[in-house]
Amino acid sequence: MDVQLSRSVAKSKHAPAQVLEYLARSSDMTTRRAVAANPTIPLALMEKLARDNQWTVLKAVATNASTPPHLLKHLASHNRDTVRHALFQRDFAPLPDEVLETFVHSPHVEDRRLLTRYGHPLPQHVLQQLERDPDTQVRLNLVWLQGGKLGDDLLQECLQSQDPQLRWTAAKHTTSAETLAALLLNDPDIGVKCAAARNHHTPGSALVSAAESLLAHPGDADDVKALLVSLLHNSGTPKAMKTELRQKLHRPLKTLVNAELVLKGETP
Question: Could you give the CA distance from residue 260 to residue 161 in angstroms, rounded to a whole number?
Answer without folding.
Answer: 27
